[in-house]
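Researcher: I'm preparing a figure for a lab meeting and need a structural model of a single chain. I don't have an experimental structure, so a prediction will have to do for now. The sequence is pasted below. Please return the structure as tokens so I can convert it later.
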Amino acid sequence: MNPLVAHLISGQILFTALLAMVLLIILYENCKQRGVRRLCAVLVCNSCLLGVCTAAYPWWLLGTLLATVGGWSVHSWIAVSGTVRNAITAAPIMLAWIIVVTEAGWAMRPAISPISERSVVVFGDSLSAGLGEKEGTPWPDQLRDRKHVAVTNLSEAGATTADGLKNVFQTDHVPGLVIIELGGNDLLGGVALADFEKNLDGILSHLRSHNRTVVMVELPLLPGKNAWGGTQRRLSRQYRCRLIPKRLLVDVLAAPGSTTDTLHLSQTGHQRLAEQIWSVIGPGLPSI
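Model: Understood. Here is the structure written out token by token.
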């Protein structure tokens, strides 16, 4: 996977672009050369747009950031008083700082509450089910073999959240932590956002009603798909489900030799994803 694409869909572009935006605003305010100032103004707007294109935040918040940047850009062409100028300059910097700090929390590995069974149930698509012998052993089975965890893998190639909703009842009599790795086929396959939200809500609601501990793999986002990430985060908060940061999955997809076609994992990729998943869930499982 191209490193720039990985940086984009992992959400790390948010940190890079907003940092660049803030530095460019500071450079603009301290530079006297008209050509440099105008270039900075253009780059500030471009950095802001690039930073928010895959950010998992509601449009009203991203719109507010864009509006403050737009206000700052307009003020650079007209004369305003010192107090107003300072306020207009500070607004996008402060809002960018708030967004970055908030996003940093989502980018950290979550802490899993200890559970009593050394057992895992996995709902996933082809990333978890594998596509046959050429991919080798899927990562859930590697957890079983390498970490000595009882694994029930209910994943299916091509599965969507609608499939997960149909199959979630199979977990009722299977103990252990539940890992959800679904949504990629919804996002890429043209499923309506409302249907994705309805299905995911149904899955998490059922699991919550049975007091299950749930971990969900966050979706890497394409530009313009912000609402999908926002929906996933909102439901994870509502049902107290832990999110495995999307950067961990993208780190695996982007690593050399991890995929067969940039989307499906090779044997090496499954090994790497198993280790990433284990780094999150391992501390919450009982010792052997």
